[in-house]
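User: what does the whole thing look like in 3D?
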Amino acid sequence: MLEINNLKSRIGDTEILRGLSLTVNSGEVHAIMGPNGSGKSTLAQVIAGHSDYVVTGGDVTYKGNNLLDLEPEERAREGIFLGFQYPVEIPGVNNAYLLKAAVNAKRKHQGLGEVDAFEFLKLAREKMAMLGMDPKFLNRGVNEGFSGGEKKRNEILQMAMLEPSLSILDETDSGLDIDALKAVAQGVNTLRDPDRSIVLVTHYQRLLDYIEPDYVHVLSDGRIIRSGDKTLALELEEKGYDWVREAATA
Amino acid sequence: MKQAGLSIEELRDAVMRLPDDSLAATRAAALANLDENGLPTLKHEDWKYTDLSAAIAISNRWLSQGAQTASIDALGESIAAITASIDANWLLIANGIIDTSLFGASSGIEIERFSDSAAPFVMDKPLADLNAALLNDGLRIQIHAATEKPLAILVIDGANAGPAVSQANVEIDVAPGCDAEIIEYQSSEGSGEHYGNSVVALNVGQGAVARYLRIQNRRIGHVQTGRLSIAMGADAKLNMASYDLGGGLIRNDLDIDLGEPGADAVFNGLYLAGDGQHIDNHTRVDHRVGPATSSQEYRGILNGRCRCVWNGKAVVHKGADGTDANQANHNLLLSKNAEIDAKPELEIYADDVKCSHGTTVGQLDDTALFYLRTRGLDERQATQVLTRAFAADLVGRAPVATARETVAALVEARLTDLIQEDAL
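Assistant: Here's the predicted 3D structure for the full assembly of 674 residues, as structure tokens:
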């Protein structure tokens, strides 16, 4: 699904990713953990195609093609979804309108016709119910005046409607109370499928109690310094990031 | 900069050819006024961003070619389309000539022409003197009671055969306690050059409510100057929105006089400008007594090589305690060649006053653009979505409910053109 090889990236003059390699196969859930400033969000933004992050080395292959050649919208239509750490408020753009435009952009790319309006609404309402979202959020401006938890649920709603092949969820757990965390986790878990992959970028182990990863990686100074299974996350919770860093340099 | 003036002798000839009716004395006085003061130039503080040379040049060419009133034959189709687009009771001023043939008699509304009486009309403001001097006739409208349909005035001009100039003048009185819906629709067509100059005076009686919708959708390249003067009675309310979609050189002067306590004036505007357009909105509110409130928000979307001006002035006179005045102006510049001059002006001579103003000029938010692109929208589509969102809020504030769909469609059509322009 996703093959990252020796990836280097900078923003401005600051080098952030310094040779990151990662392979994500179909159906796998990976958790990327690490202290603040280690490059977790940069990795997510580079995969989504943010132009502020300049790739200076390495390569990224997605479904066998060079991902870095694609515009952000092409990546989205090819099935990559980024759940933002800070979802953007867009007053005046109706939430339902954006959902529909996003779904239709992908369908058009796949050579399909536009989604049936009735079916679309029905599906959106179902997903919202699962996420514990009030249907009235459909008619509000995108994330306009939403609480932190509502914004994150809205990201997962978009993900659920788009059914991406590869989801990168950037700190989706931050700022969530326990109910919101459970709802978001349920939303993600229902998308688990042998054909889909999920990368969870997170600072804390808490989310992994609800979404069980196949692999856990520790990112530090722009490189993955340790990989393991879910027990690594528990170990990190107990011993802290310094422990892995020391072990890595020892 | 020295501005070439109006050809005053030819203007005098044109004025002399107008009917010898009850307007004649005012025309002569206005002409004398013009002869003495000329038209405003860039040296006048209120006119430093807007050069009237184009209006003067068109006027002089029109005068030198005999100052003919253009035929309205070619306007039939447009008149039919516009009057069908909004369910209203329509009055026409076509090429400066009043036409009441579409107007359905209504018990709540009385209409007369300026020529029916000797009542004076405005002639002492800049450009109102030009209007008065060349005015064929004006409309005086009294609204006594709420009507089933809004009152709509279509000012439409055509310029096919050579330069053309036309004047429109309307006085509207909303009786005390009355709730009135009024539409002013300015339109023009034809490949010839055209200059339209209008003067509207609106009196909102004590406790009355005026919902005033102004649409300016002139042909790109045509020139328009317009003055709308609004006087508000005690506890009167104004809810106004103004949409500037077309035109070449456009200058709107809006004066609101709050001379009685309890008045509340809300007026908003949206201007959309592309290549070759210059749209200038000058607003002035005089708070003469308190308590009274005024609130305005103008938004602009500019693309291509164009220039817009927003100058919002609030004067709080001595003793107008309890005044609450808000002004906001927000601009979206989609091209490097677009220019906005935004100027809030507050003059406060009273003590107990709340005044605020805010102006922003910016491009589309990069973060929002990226967000939309990660959802599969391409750059153009994302730009369009964000630009429309910026305008949508003001479209929603169109004060005459039955016209809101038409406003939305007109704004949408203009935005679509604007966003197609190359500079993007």
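In plain terms: Residues 379-395 of chain B form the longest helix (17 residues). Residues 8-364 of chain B form one domain.
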